[in-house]
Every structure is written in structure tokens, then in C-alpha cells.
Predict the structure.
Amino acid sequence: MPTEENKNTNTKNGWSKLRIKPPFRRWGLLLSPILLTWFWFALPKQLFNAPTSYIIEDKDGNLLNATIAADGQWRFPPNKNVPQKFIDCITTFEDKRFFYHPGVDPIAISRALIKDIKNKETAQGGSTLTMQVIRLSKEDNRRSIWNKIKESILAVRVEVSYSKKEILSMYASNAPFGSNVVGLDAAAWRYFGRSPDKLSWGEMAALAVLPNAPALVHPGKNRDILLKKRNRLLDKLKSDHKIDESSCNLAKLEPLPGQPLTLPQNALHLFQRFKNDHSGNEQTKVITTVEVSLQKQVANIVQQHQSVLKGNGINNACALVLDVETGNTLAYVGNIYDPANKEMESDVDVIAAPRSPGSALKPILYASMLSDGLILPNSIIADIPMQIGNYAPQNFDLGYDGAVPASNALARSLNIPAVKLLQQYKYQRFYETLQQCGISTLNRSADTYGLSLILGGCEVTMWDLAGVYASMARALNHQAKNEGNLNTNDFHPPNYKLPAPKINAVKKNIPLDATSIWFTFQAMKEVMRPGEEGLWQEFVSSQTIAWKTGTSFGFRDGWAIGITPKNVVAVWVGNTDGVGRPGLIGIKTAAPILFDIFRLLPNVAWFNKPAYNYSNVAVCKQSGFRANIDCPDVDTLFMPVNGQKAPLCPYHKMINLDAAGQYRVTEDCESPSAMQHKSWFVLSPAMEYYYKQKNADYKVLPAFKPGCNFAETGRLIEIIYPQPDAKIYVPFEVSGQKGNTIFTAAHRRAGAKIYWSLDDNFAGTTQNFHQIALNPSPGKHIITLVDENGVSVSRQFEILEKEKN
């Protein structure tokens, strides 16, 4: 027996009998950190790097559009939300202890080995769902012992870093489902036309067995095998009490998936916008703010109208519906898509394309001038022929009113009053105002656009334009909450994504106020609607809408935009290649589409009258200006706050009449005590010339009493045509002879005679109606007018040999 000393010696020198142990311990101590490091870093940061399909969904998760991935697979972006039905089906079918094992299931592996030994071949693999995730993430999918070992180790590693829910999500997003369909989401839409969460038990069970044998989905002899596998899974679900017997039997009656379905194409141009916005970005899926049912209805309306307009060579149309409060896009129809007809260029997204807005910017100018106190809502504006340099704007109907209230000029979309207002406001300032409100396409200098800015001489996108009007409506809706102050955060571009990105205010110091916006919308809601002859207001069900149309030069663009407290609808009609067509007018082409779309939207109460930031202003009833001391009829009215700064009425002045009130008199011919002093509404001769034609109650100034010596002040004669430095082309008549030029003038005094001279050569005399036809030769000329009292006026013009383009 060993002594105590020997025991100690053996203990100290125990390795003498087991010499192999110390090296193993040392190697174990060295290898353990290496193995742990390998174990930790063996898993890449991102298991799956395959390209995914671009897809967009509506606000409720319904698929709107999708494209195949870059590698030719229908592979939707990963979805973290795996339906419980699929979890029940796939775990029951593939890995019933999934929620209990650490990535490897020893029981399943043992069972598989026993069966493999009995069958003397690989009959069952025993792979867990976690191991299958590893296999799906690798390019080398060969079945071998070595691969199995690696999958097992990596499966445990996956379980360390990911939750069971995340592992199921990776499996569901990357499992093969036959043909070129990868992932549960793509499979649900390709085989059943619905999202996975809307599948029945029979449909989900059919999909759950496919990753195990993807080829079974093809029609033919495999159908019986697929049916048996699905029904066997349904029986297991019933035995596990995940479905009842009735659900099981009904599920077995459901048909198997057939040929892959075509995926929805309900918002093609919004889809293209999303792809352009995220080009080169890893994000290939977005949940939009669109409502799919409204999207389809709006697309149908636009399609129906465009099919009729196409008969007139008008090939394209688009529509946009926004929610005012959020700025969210509810429907986005960028064009009517017709891939069979390349000439239609239907792939162009007109909502994002810069186009001439026609008159669609006029309400912004009107609101800006009200906000500044430059006009009051019904201040009369001159509506007479005008020319600025070579620019001679005309009203759409080629007529003139002489003078027209600003609100009426807006409602009727008169061009000349709009240009005169812009002259007063300054086009440079309006250019800045448009940019501050959210128009982002004014890429040239203000001087390049000039006064044509207000008549569509610039380019805007429907996206920007609808966003500006939604911002104006939003500011008006918030006027009570903001106590009348304009919150610049209310002015922002539209949005089509959920969750909504952080709102960036367009600009600060926006020159608008809620009360001025309210008056603008009030004027816009008075426009007569197409086909309803102004009777729509008699029907209680008719929705109150502020709306505006626009028609660009050359009949290239027809616009209509409508606003309620709830929604903004914008419509454009035209040709994407810029070809104009006769009859391409906003009121005739775009407005009918606009009102058909509004019939789909909720009927809401009109904007509340502003309770803050207003003033009560004494207004001249006849002129609409702030009343001066000579205005006979004055109303104190609710006005924008800066209405107190508006100009005083320039059209009323006191005149002296004789005792009978028939003639004007002076102290030279009438005793002051016998005079009547009366305020008179007096327009300029040119304004009066047109105004009295449409206003029978207009009273011209009385003539002076015979024998009175007078020195009348103000303009007595005005040349209406031609405008200063006009360049005139006179076409040939049908007879082949060159036509005449009709010169027109107006005289303040009724019955006055005007003597006309052309280049110092007497041309004729007119009285009362002052028009004369002349045929000047090509070149520069001067026309001179003189009345009986020697009052004269001259104007230079030029006759062209051929028409200038």
C-alpha cells in the first residue's frame, strides 16, 4: 500500500500515470476561446441578401402594385408579421417542437436516423425550421453529413441571436413555394390573390406543405400528392385541436391553387414614383396612404371620360385626391395606362410632370392681395383691352366688362383683371409667394415669366398645386385653433407614405391669412358647374365646393381643382406630348371628371367663418373699395384684417348740377345756392365704353349746361384699339383683298365729335359711336384723335406684312 508520502508524491506527480491529460487540457483551454469566437462570428450580420420585389400597399395592407425582383423571383420584402394560421400549419407539418428546442431537435434527429438505418437510405432529415432557415440562406444546399453538422451548429447560433418569431419570419419570407415564387407573401398573392392574413385554413395548409416539395404546385399528376399532403396536415391540425372537425372538413373541400395569378396593378404611376424616390435604396416596400377602393373608382371615372375625349385626339388624363388635414394621398391616377398604344405615352406620370397651369394660380394671387389689403373682395378691377410691350392678354371669351368686382373676375376667370392685379402686386413678389406656398418648379427667374405668370406662363406639377390648395384649406380649418394666426407648418407638400415622414414646413413668412383664404374660397364656390346651369345650389344634397379651372395657351392643358374642408381633388386632361386640341378647355374636359370624383367623397359642412384676425370696414357698395367721403351707399362689412389699409374708392366724386338736376354747371352759369351737389360714379372713358354695354343702370356724367364755360378735368378721350406700340397683322379677306383695321375710341362726353387723322392725314369723323375702319400700309404709323374743344390724343402702332409666330 502506498504511504501518505507516496500518495502526496503521486498526487503531485499524478501525470506520470496519465501523461496524455495535461496536453488535452492545455489544448482545450486554447481551443475554447477560438471555438467560441468562431461560433459567435460564424453567423453573418444579415442572413439573406437576395433582391426583393418592389411593392406598394394601400393603408390597410392591400397590394396595389408589385414587380418581380432583379433575379427573376417573386420575392416580397421580409414581413415581420407572420399569420398565426401559417405558424400553426408550418410547425405542425415541419417542426412541432419548434418553440421548445434550441435550434436542433434531438428527438427528431434520432427518429430520422432510425428510419434512415431501417430504410438504408436518407428517408427523413429531421431538420428543424431553424436549420432550414440556415439552409435557405446558403448557396450550398447539398444534403450531406458535414452540411447537416454545420446547419445544426449555426441553427443553435441563430437561436442565440433571434427570437422564435423572428426565425419564423425569416423562414416565411424566404421559403420556396414553387416556380419562381419565394416567400409566403408572394405565394399568397400569386396563388390566391390575397394577403396571407386573409387566407383560409385550406389555402394556408396548401401553402405550408409546398416548401417541403415546391414542385407539387404545378398542375398534373402532382395534384393528387399535393391534395393528400394538405389533407393530412389538416387532419393533424384537427388532432392537435388547432381547428375543429367542421373547419377541417370544410377546408378539405377547398380547391388547390392553380396557375399563378397576375398581381394587382392599381396605382402604376404612384408605384413608379415610389421606385424613383427609392432608387438605390434597400427599402423596396411602402405602405401608402391610398384607399384601394377609392383608387379603383377614381381610375374608372378617369378611364370613362378619357375614352370619350380620345375621340377628339385627347389621349391622357390624371387625377389626384388628397386628405386636407394630413395632406395624405387617397387616390393617385397618374395617367390612363394603355401599354398597347405607345403613342399615347400613358406611362408618363402627369401628376409629377411640370405643365402650364392656365388660370389655376389666380386664387393664390387674389388671396395674397386680400391679405395685404391691396384690394377688398369686391373691389372693381378694370376689364378693358391692354397691351404691355408686345404682350396683349385677352379674356377667354374675347369680350370685356369695362369694370368687374375682383371676386367675380376670379369666379369667371377673367384674364385682364388678373393681369392688372398682378401689375399692382408685382410679378416678382408673386413669384416668391408661389415658392413660399409650395410651388417647387419655378426654376427660371421671375423676369423670364413676367406678367404671363398669372395666365399659365410657367410650369407647375399637380402634386405641388394640389398641395398648395390643401395647405390653404388646412390653414383655414385651423384658424380657430391658431386664434387667427397662420401656422407655417400647415403649408407642406402632400404625402403618400405610412407612417408619414416628418413634416417640413415649406417656407416661413407666407403672405396669406385665414380670412383672406376664406374669401377666396367663397368666390370660388360661386362658379357655375358644367351641365348644371347654376341650379346645383337648389339641391340640399349638392356638396359645396370651391373650384377653379385652367386652360393653357394653345389648348394644351385642361385643369380643374376643387376644395372642401375635407378633401382636395385635382384633375388634368391633355396630351403628354404637348399637342393642343380644339375644345381642350378645363371647364369642358377636366371639370366633369372633378365633380364625378367628388360624388365619391363625403359631403361635409362648409368652412367656418373666421372668428379671429378680421376687421369691420366701411365699403363703397358700388365700387367695392373702402368708402371715401363721396360714396353715397356705404356698408360696414366683415373683411380681412388688412382691409383697413385698402385704397379709398377712386370712382366717386362730387359734381354740381343745376336746380333741375339735368346739367352740370359751374359758378359762371349757376348760382351756388341753386346748385345740387351730388356724388357720381365715374369710370374712365374706356372702362365706361364697355361697362355701360353690360350695365343698363350705369349713368354717364350729365352734359354741361349750354352757355357754361368749363374746363373738364381727367381723361376725356381714350384710344381703346390699338394699344400703345401694337404690332398688327391684317389678314386677307375671302375675296382676296386685304382687310381693314378697326380703330376704336371712347369719349367722356355724350354726343362729342372726334376727328381722326392717320399720319397727319385726315381720316374721318365719328360721333357717339367712335369706330373707324382704315387700311394703313405696312410700317409704323401714328393715329391722332381731336375733339371739338381741341382735346387730343395720339398713339403709335405698326402694321406687319406677315404674321409673326
Observations:
- The chain has a mean pLDDT of 87.
- Residues 350-598 form a domain with the Beta-lactamase fold (CATH 3.40.710.10).
